[in-house]
Amino acid sequence: MSKYALNVEESFLEKAREQHALLRLSLANRERLSVVITAVCRYDINVETDGQTLTLPKKDISHISYETPLLPDEFFQGRTEEAPSLKSRVQDEFLERYVKEKTLALLSMVNGDEFRGVLEGYDGFTLSLKTSRGQTLLYKHGLCRIGPGYRRRTGPEREHAN
Amino acid sequence: MQTNLLDDVLERHLNDGSPVYLTLKDNTALKGAVKDYDSYVVMLGGERDSVVYRHSILKAADAAAHKVEPKKEVRPPAPVQRAAPPRPAPQSRPQQERPPRPKRPPVRPTNVPQPERAPEAQAPAMNPMAEKMAEWLKKQKGGG
Question: How far is A117 from chain B (nearest CA, A)?
Answer without folding.
Answer: 15
